[in-house]
Amino acid sequence: MGFRITKAVIPAAGLGTRFLPATKAMPKEMLPVVDKPAIQYVVEEAVEAGLTDVLMITGRNKNALENHFDRVTELESTLEQKGDFQRLQKVEYSNDLADMHYVRQGDPRGLGHAILRARMHVGDEPFAVLLGDDLIDERDVLLSRMLEEQSERNATVIALMEVDPASAHLYGIATVETTDEDDVVRITDLVEKPAPGTAPSNLAIIGRYVLQPEVFEVLERTDPGKGGEIQLTDALLELARKDIAGGVYGVVFRGRRYDTGDRVDYIKAIVQLAVERDDLGPELRPWLKSFADTLG
């Protein structure tokens, strides 16, 4: 059995240009998904899987992220005086979710570079990486399954999801071999955004990784790729091809995933999550049906 992982790294230094002007002064990670910022869903997922030490990789104008997971004594006092204990509980909940840490990325040199900034905090331990654009439904198991496989195999584990072959050129795509587990494959090759019609499979990388600490050494020597960025996919490819630190395995996720990195998908995520809530669904579902009827 491998080392019990407790550390999660959440890269959150992006500029969120696809959501301008909303993200001109507010981090994209703080955009609300129903009534919680997207980043809180990600931290909650990490904590639910047993990862209580969370390092967020931030950038300029990201102070709102730190503020969200900190005390707001004036607001808490006001709610307490009003007797609004339901809202007070929601406000206080994020204060103590995890042991939160923050470090700035500095130069925006890609996901691989952001993960390198976690090296001093992580040390010589396996760790998880959660990307904020991908929200995993809390009713579906992914991260804890990945941690389980990492412990069993003492290897890097990434999350994969089947996508429409026509959309494969939008993702990092894996070439795989089967294993003794139906939902686990061994990665033999990776290609980032293959040309249409050339993808080796329809298994796409989604934003969850459990990495061996050896990834830092590989990232250090990984040459910048497109746009001068250090790509995590390039480092994963070297780990897989050279079978470094146990190689790379993939857990194939067949549950519900919500993409908040694209405007249309972000709106879809809000609607999907809202209609299934007990406090919003009963009123929202019939309205949606009625509204859809008016569209013809």
TrEMBL record:
It catalyses: alpha-D-glucose 1-phosphate + UTP + H(+) = UDP-alpha-D-glucose + diphosphate. Transmembrane segments: none annotated. It is an enzyme of class 2 (transferase). Belongs to the UDPGP type 2 family. Keywords: Nucleotidyltransferase, Transferase. This is UTP--glucose-1-phosphate uridylyltransferase. GO terms for molecular function: UTP:glucose-1-phosphate uridylyltransferase activity. The gene is galU. It holds the Pfam family NTP_transferase. InterPro entries: GalU_uridylyltTrfase_bac/arc, NTP_transferase_dom, Nucleotide-diphossugar_trans. Its EC number is 2.7.7.9. The keyword Nucleotidyltransferase applies. It comes from Antiquaquibacter soli. Residues 7-273 form the Nucleotidyl transferase domain. PANTHER family: UTP--GLUCOSE-1-PHOSPHATE URIDYLYLTRANSFERASE (PTHR43197).
